[in-house]
Amino acid sequence: MKGIIVVLGAILVLALFATGSVRGEDVREGYCLGLEQSSAGVQPSAAANAGGQSEFRGDEVGANSSFFITLADGTEAHTFVSASDFRFKENRSSTAGSSIFVDLFLIDVGNPDDYCDDVFQYFYGFADLATDQFDVGRDLSSANLNAMVEVCTDPFDPWSKCHEVKISKLVWGEPGGLYHDWGSNHHRDDTGCRSDSSHNIKSRDAVATGSITFDGQQLAPGPSDWASIYSSVFKDKSRGCFYAEYCQLELGAVGRANPLELDRLSARTAGTIVPAACLETR
Fold first, then answer.
1. CA neighbours within 13 Å on the CB side: how many for 176?
2. Rounded Cα distance, 150 and 101, in Å
3. Which residues contact 138 (CB under 8 A, 6 or more apart)?
4. Rounded to whole angstroms, how far apart are CA atoms 4 and 97?
5. In a 3-state reduction of DSSP, which class is residue 20?
6. Which of 3, 177, 180, 203 has its CA 20 to 30 A from that of 234?
7. Residues 37, 38, 41, 43: what is their CA dihedral angle, to the nearest 10 degrees?
């Protein structure tokens, strides 16, 4: 999971550079999202300890899909599935593999005329995949996935509520036209921080069909609401950018909740989320 968080931070930094006008503090904030946090304080990744020099590069090929269905009991189910093969290199360390992420949002609408009694449940989970569980066709023409994933209200809490999601013969087909985006960005500031990044992204819209079961209930009885197959290559190199010191100052000696985690906390709690407007009426 540490690798996933670092990757998310690096991708966020890349996205910030893509805006074309990035302030140094914006870039450093993005880097902070990629740091592992602990009760002892912020633990910078190896890149942050390299004398202000860092190089991150990677390539990935994957497929995403989302499904919506109203179950027999009236519960609305929103399911998102993302799988990818990846290779990442950060300075002298590298990692490669295949993984899947599943996101499930359930809404018990209760009384259709009173949204204040709606009950929300949010589950998500990650899993590594074997080489024969996920495959993307040549030129992003198709993709196939078979997997079993445990999704929980909080995968990092051993006491959280968990369920198994089984994905069988999920196939991405009917590929659309090829979308291609590429470019490079360069950042300089008065602190001596210099950063250069580049990206090359290709994708095709698609239609995903197959079986996704959750507690014996079928979440994908029909084609996906949205799906895509993609590939990406990206690189980021910085010099003189001491992000670790900045994050230590910003987050404090005992650390601060990771903004990514705060987003997750606000989106879940397995049935305890209440719309803000409803709070005002209670």
1. 14
2. 10
3. none
4. 12
5. coil
6. 177
7. -50
